[in-house]
Specification:
The longest helix is centred in the first third of the chain and has 31 residues. Strands 4-3-2-1-5 form a 5-stranded antiparallel β-sheet, with helices on one face. The chain has 6 helices and 5 strands, in the order ααααβββββαα. By secondary structure, the chain is of the alpha+beta class. It is extended and about 70 Å long. Helix 1 crosses helix 2. Helices cover 48% and strands 16% of the residues.
């Protein structure tokens, strides 16, 4: 890929999520602010009212999703969206991104490396559970959708511990191996041992 194409791709990767996020926020705000009952409220107070209404809406839908009715509603919405060509791609990608971003990553323990074939390793995560015969239960996610995968039972000697964090491992899997972590280390003042040693007596 030429240099200008890489620059365009890198720019789009940064700008597109911001534009989509801004559009969604603006659309939701205008939709709620357009409710007739809110038209007579002063603009500063209207913003606060919209935030309260949106928060209550999110909590109400979230509570409903814990019930059997919520599962039926979600299934019906998924069915309708998946029947619309083009829109289903955007819908499924957005839903997967939201589920990934908002899911509790603390459920995943330390990442490990599992050699599934000779010389080929895959990233898995400890679940903190073991089988009756002492094997570790590991979650082996698929890329880039980490909400699916395999639960494997592995002998402790058959996987390798790593020093990377859960976030770094998830970044690699979610990006299908193309992502890079840009966490900068904490700067530490280090003095050269040779400089700190006192000169030998003459």
């Amino acid at each position: 890929m030429s240099s200008w194409k890489r620059d365009v791709a890198s720019g789009l990767i940064v700008i597109l999520p911001l534009l989509v996020s801004a559009y969604i926020i603006a659309y939701l705000y205008l939709a709620i602010a357009g409710i007739p009952i809110l038209q007579d409220i002063e603009p500063p107070l209207r913003v606060l009212t919209v935030l309260v209404v949106f928060s209550m809406l999110v909590l109400s839908v979230g509570y409903m999703m814990r019930t059997a009715v919520g599962s039926l509603v979600e299934g019906a919405i998924d069915g309708v969206m998946n029947r619309v060509p083009g829109l289903r791609v955007v819908y499924n990608a957005s839903k997967m991104a939201a589920e990934t971003a908002l899911s509790d990553s603390t459920d995943l323990q330390a990442p490990v490396k599992v050699e599934v074939w000779s010389g080929m390793r895959m990233t898995a995560f400890k679940t903190g559970k073991t089988t009756d015969d002492g094997r570790e239960l590991l979650f082996l996610p698929t890329a880039p959708n980490i909400t699916t995968g395999f639960v494997v039972e592995v002998e402790p000697s058959d996987f390798q511990e790593t020093d990377e964090s859960v976030e770094d491992a998830l970044t690699r899997i979610l990006s299908a191996g193309f992502g890079e972590t840009s966490e900068a280390g904490i700067p530490i003042d280090v003095e050269d041992e040779k400089e700190t040693q006192s000169p030998p007596p003459q």
